[in-house]
Give the backbone structure.
Amino acid sequence: MSTPVRYTLHHPRWYRRPVSVFWWLKKRAYIVFVLRELTSVFVALVSVLTLLQVRAILESPEAHAALMARLASPPVTGLLLVALAALVFHSVSWFNLAPRAMPVRLRGRRVPDVLVSGGNFAAWLFLSAAMAFLFLGTMTTR
Amino acid sequence: MADTIALEVTRYRPEEESEPTFQTYEVPLRQDWVVLDALNHVKDHVDGTLSYRWSCRMGVCGSCGMMVNGEPKLTCAEFLTDHAPGPIRVEPLRFFPVVRDLVVDIGDFMSKLKSVKPWLVRKQERAIADGEFRQTPQQLDTYKQFSMCINCMLCYSACPVFGLEPSFVGPAAIALARRYSQDSRDQGSRERLDVLSEKGGMWECTFVGECSEACPKNVDPAGAIQQYKLEGTVHWFKTLLPLGDR
C-alpha cells in the first residue's frame, strides 16, 4: 500500500516501463544495428569527398593535385581508413539484407537469396573497379 | 542436477503498488516442463493470485508470450532445463503497458492490426455460383510465410522502434498486411499501402531486424516491411509519370 490508488476511467491503472536511452547497449544485435546506422555518417562524408574530387578533376590537374596533397596528411589518411572500414561494413551488411527486401521471382519461382545479394556484390565490384579506373587513371595520366 | 529452479516473476498489483516488483518461486525442475508449466504450477499450488495469459500450450494461440531472461519468448516453448541452474526471470512483454503481473494490454495492437485490413478485400464480391477462387502453388507461396503469424506480439517486444515510438504500427501488423496484399484473391493492396505510408507506418522501421529473430513461427516481418518500402517507393515514382498511378 505504498501509494494511494488512482484508477483511470474505463481502463486499469497501467504501468509503462520507460525505455532507457542506453537500450542499444543491452544486446549485441542492437549494438551492431546502431553501428550500421552510424556508418551512414561516413557514407555521407565519402560521398561529399567524391563530389569534391570529381569537381577538382573537371577543374584542372592542379586543383586535383592540391586536393590530393591535402588528403595525404596522416590524420586525414587515418580518417579515410576508418571511413573505408565503415563503408565496407555498411555495404556488406546492406547487400546481405537485400534479398529480404527484394524477393525476386522468375517464372513464379523465387530466385535464391545468394543470387540477389550476389548481383549486388557484383555491381559493387564493377562500379568500384570503374571508379578506381577513373581516379587512378587520371592520376597516372597527369 | 538440482531438483528445483527459481522463477523470478514480475508482480504488479495496481491497487497495492505503484510499480512492479519481483517475487521468487521455487518450482520443480522437470525435464518435460516449460516456463508455462512452471507458472501453472505456481498458480495451482503456490500462489493463486499470480496473473498471466495462456491458452493452447502448443505454440498456436500466441497468448503466452513473455520476456524470459530478457528475451521475448512463447513460454509454452521455453524449457526450464535450457535455463538451468537458473534463476529464470519472467517478465511481461516489453514495451506494452502492464495491466497486472504478467498481463499486458493488447488493445493498441488490436486496433493497429485492424487498421491494415488483414482480410481479403474485394471491390466486388463474386457470386457463389461463379465458383471458388483458384490459386496456384506459386501464388500461395508468395504469401504463405507471412500467413504463419499467430499475433503473439513477440516481435513488438523485440523492436526498439516500437519501444521508442509507440505509434509505430509494428512488425506483425505489417507482415499480415503483406500476407493479404500478396494474395492473388485480394484487391486491397493500394488501401493498405496508403495506411502504411502514413506517419507510424512502414517508414518508422529502421530495419533492426530483431522482429524476425524473435518470431517463433519464422515469419519475416522485417522482410515484409522492407518489401513495403520498396513498393511504396516504386509507387511514388509512378505518381511522377505523366500518366502515372494517382
Observations:
- DSSP finds four helices and two strands in chain A.
